[in-house]
Amino acid sequence: MSGIKKAIASIRNVFSVADIRKKILFTMLIIVLFRFGSQVPVPFVNPEVIGSGFDVGIMDFMNMLSGDAMSQATLFALGISPYITSSIVMQLLCVAIPALERMSKDEDGKKKIQKITRFVTVGLALIMAIGYYMMLTNMSADFVEPIKGHKFFTAVVIIASYCAGASLVMWLGEKINEKGIGNGISIILFVNILVSFPSYLVKIFRAIGGTLTAANGATMPMDNWWVGTIIGVLGLAFIIAMIAFMVFMSDSERRIPVQYAKRVVGRKMYGGQSSNLPLKVNMTGVMPIIFASSIVSIPATIAAFAGKSNVDTGFWGLVKNHFTQNTVAYTLVFLALLLAFAYFYIAISFNPVEVSNNLRKNGGFVPGIRPGKPTSDYISRVLSKITFIGALCLMIVAGLPMIMGIFGANFGTNAGGYTDWYTLTYFAFSGNSLLIVIGVALETVRDIESQMTLRHFKGFLE
Hints:
The structure is a single chain. This protein has helices at about 1-15, 20-35, 45-55, 60-65, 70, 80-95, 100-105, 105-140, 150-180, 185-210, 225-250, 285-295, 300-305, 315-320, 330-350, 350-360, 375-410, 425, 430-455; strands spanning about 210-215, 220, 255-260, 265, 270, 275-280, 365. It is mostly helical. A hairpin with a 2-residue loop joins β4 and β5.
């Protein structure tokens, strides 16, 4: 009861500050507008037919990231994928091109890079819109209802609508950054994933009740109802355990002790106190998972957009058999990319030499380590170790559900084609989705708490 009272008091404190209240209400307004746009139909597209025949697999994961808008072919069907991909491309270019690297360290340069990112987002949205339109037309002739004699005009309208929708999503995310509580794109992604949770929870409880759920929503009783009950209960227990592990991982850190030298200025003595340099175990957050997912899903996404997802021979057959979810090759490549991107993201976001120089300028040093290069080398060694531990935790969080999906695929194939029941935790409650949800929630709470602390409140979590 005391915990509930503290929570109510914290919420009351948050809304008692006019500035924070306006930011939260503005963010909620943007979310409402975004969800409204996710329900707006696109001209010449039949959402009822698409909803019943939408292809599963890699597209199901993308559909979840778009808040089910992709399966309904609504205005925001592309979601934030173009903006995320554009951000990844620009971060890679900032490392590869020295001129962009220098721009990224300057405030005006950052604004120019952000402008370039917007243009790249629009370009990628156009490409993805064309691919999505081709996927719809290849899946079934009933998905698109063109004007008789004006098929090209119909295609232009549909592609322009999806491109405009992706650009509008980018604009909404930036508005949250400017006038809301921040983390605009992350909050939109957070909302998209949460929207998909209830339907998958229903499937889990149906499995516990002994009912199989197919991809098109049809249900049938299971021959062995107790199998579904065990799977459903284990799925719920797995979700709870993963949440606890992720929260623990997000709060874990390695603290490097720092001692500040004493110095006398006039008649006063400054320094001499001890502090520490905190290095979070999961310093990269969900970025390695987003990077790895974007790269490894490219072959299957292209196959889906080109209407080749069901081809069993040649190159597309290789993609279908080895580079789609629930395959060993897909999982191994994903885990390898996750480890590589974890080190890559640390390399572009944390500079041990700069930290070492700042410590030396302020009279700080690590006990037993000489200032300058030895300190930066020491920080690099410690950072390399905790990055590996953090990447290993991410591999467990993201890889364990994928491994469960591989074994589940072989088991579910013998269930008469009703296979969604064994992959419930894989798609909706996979480590990727859970980590994004928990990471965004914790980051948002920390942002609100820091703003409350500036205004002399104890904090949002206290």
